[in-house]
Design a protein that fits this description.
There is one protein chain. This protein is an alpha+beta fold. 25% of the residues lie in helices and 45% in strands. It contains 2 helices and 7 strands. Strands 1-7-6-5-4-3-2 form a 7-stranded antiparallel sheet, with helices on one face. Strand 2 (35-43) and strand 3 (48-55) form a beta hairpin. The longest helix is centred in the last third of the chain and has 23 residues, at 117-139.
């Protein structure tokens, strides 16, 4: 699929949004539609791990996940996937007093068409909106 990005303004402090991105590393099912869980296979340095994620349709993907607190960035890189190659990046940014959450996905099919591109773009958008809503509820003292 071609590169897709979704950016949303979040009405919550950046550190609160970042807490949700860190939680998403071990609990993606709380944030991403179609994900049922993840198992950490190995820990790398203190800010890197390899995990297997369970998706709809009994599909599993293996990813190397690394995160950088100073830039509030999390990077998910596909490992040894038979269908796709690529990455996803989640980032929390502050710009002129606004907090922005950006999810970028760049998965390319190894062979065949990019017919699933629209479905994946929708999932990227839904994951960003869901994470933003959770952060806003916590910032408001609701969650």
């Amino acid at each position: 699929m071609p590169l897709c990005t979704h950016r949303v303004e979040v009405h919550a402090p950046a550190h609160v949004v970042w807490e949700f991105l860190v939680d998403k590393i071990q609990h993606p099912e709380r944030y991403v539609p179609g994900v049922h869980g993840a198992v950490v296979e190995e820990m790398g340095d203190p800010q890197c791990l390899v995990r297997t994620v369970e998706l709809d349709g009994d599909r599993r993907i293996k990813e190397r996940v690394s995160w950088t607190p100073s830039t509030r960035t999390v990077c998910f890189v596909l490992l040894d996937d038979p269908e796709f190659t690529g990455f996803v990046i989640n980032q929390v940014m502050e710009d002129e007093g606004r907090v922005l959450l950006e999810h970028t996905m760049n998965w390319r099919p190894r062979t065949g068409s990019e017919a699933e591109a629209e479905a994946w773009a929708t999932k990227v958008r839904e994951a960003a909106l869901h994470t933003a809503a959770q952060a806003e509820r916590r910032a408001a003292g609701i969650g």
